[in-house]
Amino acid sequence: MQSITTELVHQTITRRPAESHKGTYGRLMLIGGNQNFGGAIIMAATAAIYSGAGLVTVATDASNFTSLHAQLPEAMVVDYRQTAYVTQLLQTMDVIIIGPGLGTDQLAANLLTTVLTHVQAHQRLVIDGSALTLLAARQQSLPDAQIVVTPHQMEWQRLSGLKIADQTPTANRQAQQHLHAIAVVKAHHTTVYTNDRVWFNPGGTPAMATGGMGDTLAGMVGGFAAQFPDFTNAILSAVYLHSEVADDLAQSRYVVLPHQISAEIPKYMHRASLA
Amino acid sequence: MQSITTELVHQTITRRPAESHKGTYGRLMLIGGNQNFGGAIIMAATAAIYSGAGLVTVATDASNFTSLHAQLPEAMVVDYRQTAYVTQLLQTMDVIIIGPGLGTDQLAANLLTTVLTHVQAHQRLVIDGSALTLLAARQQSLPDAQIVVTPHQMEWQRLSGLKIADQTPTANRQAQQHLHAIAVVKAHHTTVYTNDRVWFNPGGTPAMATGGMGDTLAGMVGGFAAQFPDFTNAILSAVYLHSEVADDLAQSRYVVLPHQISAEIPKYMHRASLA
Amino acid sequence: MQSITTELVHQTITRRPAESHKGTYGRLMLIGGNQNFGGAIIMAATAAIYSGAGLVTVATDASNFTSLHAQLPEAMVVDYRQTAYVTQLLQTMDVIIIGPGLGTDQLAANLLTTVLTHVQAHQRLVIDGSALTLLAARQQSLPDAQIVVTPHQMEWQRLSGLKIADQTPTANRQAQQHLHAIAVVKAHHTTVYTNDRVWFNPGGTPAMATGGMGDTLAGMVGGFAAQFPDFTNAILSAVYLHSEVADDLAQSRYVVLPHQISAEIPKYMHRASLA
Amino acid sequence: MQSITTELVHQTITRRPAESHKGTYGRLMLIGGNQNFGGAIIMAATAAIYSGAGLVTVATDASNFTSLHAQLPEAMVVDYRQTAYVTQLLQTMDVIIIGPGLGTDQLAANLLTTVLTHVQAHQRLVIDGSALTLLAARQQSLPDAQIVVTPHQMEWQRLSGLKIADQTPTANRQAQQHLHAIAVVKAHHTTVYTNDRVWFNPGGTPAMATGGMGDTLAGMVGGFAAQFPDFTNAILSAVYLHSEVADDLAQSRYVVLPHQISAEIPKYMHRASLA
Q: Where does AMP bind (chains A, B, C, D) (predicted)?
């Protein structure tokens, strides 16, 4: 098991080339946010945009459009019931995030099917939240694409079949190999399972133990994946910075709110890019 | 009569254990916010989340979903007209807050009945605002649960039958014993009546005399009750910090707005946890 | 013509008594904000609440509820089409503001009629914006109440019949006497016409020349009138502080936005209360 | 090719005359924001208002009213489907911005036709975003008015017929002469083509390469055009300050969000006005 290091983050987050435009930094679609959990997709989209993704579209329940735009005019929106339009847009994306606040009803299941059916080998896919519960219920192998799953321990239990007490690095590793996706198993110290290694995140604070923190991480993972060529390093850097920001904010706060993390991301990325 | 002290607050707000997750800090449901008073439930939910409650769901009029999410994506929402769903969710909660902006119509009365019928002995219940007016109109004893009522003096008059001029500590104590709930009687200096003592809150400023300040306190009481094992100390600490934050903000403000209190809570709790 | 002075403001904005509650600081209703001009009533309500009015209700088009609550949960709302309910609430108010973003259609005219019909002698009434245009079109004397009109120069022309070039202090004074209301004639240096005097506001900056600045002043005038016993001094103090805040903000800004004024009011009032 | 200079900006942004009112600083209408791209018109309107335009009306899809007002109460709104009302309002405007988030459907095309048909010689018109794509598809000469187009390189390709690799200053100049409008061609270093010169913007940072940055520039161009007599200098100053703010914010941020630019504009304009 190897610790994610500041050096790895600094090597990943490079200075942006002068000659570039928003397309250079990726097209990203988030899918989630039903009528009850709309906040989750707002928090994930906020994190993706503050992480620097170039063009962000949110496919969500139409009842979430206004609250999303009220705080995040930078995102575009599409009704996730417009299947044909969503499917068409999916082809144009570099990164897809599915799951934050998605729920587990038939519509949610259909959206996951759409994504798993249409995702292309060159695309990157983040599966989070409710989509992991849906995925666990299927006995289906993942399609050929660059995929990362971001479960907390209970979601990982559902997905891997490993009870929380049995989630040792070795067992997790084995489960991840079977899954054919990178696995970010969220805990006090998050561990990341890639094809050839087990990574350990040194940061993390119980001040992060609040609803929406995972949605924010999913958004960051997607945002980083939209910009940085090495998929694994993009994921590891997102995990590392997410907890580093939280650790710093927790120096003066009993609880850190998800949107407070997102607000800080551009500064932390800037510092990393200079080193 | 005994003053709430900084020491009590410091003993209550302990450092969070490293190995913990959002579930550790409680599931909390707020019920309130009709079509006219939606702001009240937004302010209460904001206070609960900034107090560190782990998972917060707001059962409210559907017309309030968007304004709530626009400033507080961290909350989940449910239409309080979906009685079956609300009742089902209630079973899973650690803390329930009913009343902020609830109103006193038939729907409100039915929601209060649902809560009083289904609340379980291990759950904690905060009854505030309009729900106190509804409660006063019933001649019904409270169910077996950990209950706190948070009336201002006029609401306490309705609930206790004591005219404001007659609300002496002794008389209040007697009324509270009859009620079988902890009573937080809000005034310039708030007093708290527990089963065995009368507590006096040393803080408080007329800069707090503005609409929504009570909703914010209700949210803090619920948020603290979701996290700290001793129910009485959780309540006393919320009362104390609520006025301490206000007193500090009033050093430079003629009036303190409720949302300004909430924004400060994580810092005050952090300081208390260090001491 | 006499200048409004810091001393007058300091004498008006007194320290709040310790034993007080939100009712002490007034019940205030704002009426305005149609489907096109909803922002105006939001800005006016914001100013009223940040000025310290105890309980603020906004009667507006229902389409404005969400945007209002998204930034100002402290306000209560009512659909201004619910005539019976609005009329009933009107009786309970200390201060009524009518006009910001109201428009001039039949509904607006009816609302003005309702207010002028039901306003009571002990109530205070601020007539602003579109309501002034409506008022100018009627040849009707004002009811017996404490009334202030807050026109800019063009609205004053409509109301007084005086062309802008003819709006000298003497002519304005005469028109005001005829109107039986205090008149705040907004200009680079605003003048205020009371029953016995003409007041001159020393502050003001062209950085205030932006949409919504007048709505903010109307909200401040109402908020101050809800709290301070002398109606004239309340108005004069609101006029003075409104431009004082703007002058200070304009030290570093080419244009001052209305909501930026409101955010500063509690601090300026606090300072005035100490002097 | 000539660099836009600080001196030019300082000469353009003059101190506001004391005797002035909101009408002095222009009436501006923005047209855009369909059901998917509502954020674009919010960002453009925000930039226009923070640039100091006196009275700003947004013609957009009605579903965007609430999110717009939730963050920008200073703007007025009108449903862009109310053709007669929009057309009537158009006559009263000093500046019109069409395009941010407008989309390219039939409604969008009709709105562009309405604007091009009704715009008057004394009015100023900013054509941006989707409206440029619509314009490129027509073989129609522009009407007699003060017009500026603000394409990024791909939009300029559509409009001018020049492939990105062929967009040399000389070729662009020729295309602009043919177009009969000032052209702001957005790139890492933006170039501006006026009737007699080619201007080069010295600022710009890849931290600006994010969705919405162009909408913000369009809003600034319109806001400046509403206030400053020389149309060319107004455009050049907006381009210059837009990137100057971004360059400064990028000193500490990996990505600069559009709304962060707008928040800074009043301070930068103030400084320019003093010099």
A: 186-190, 214
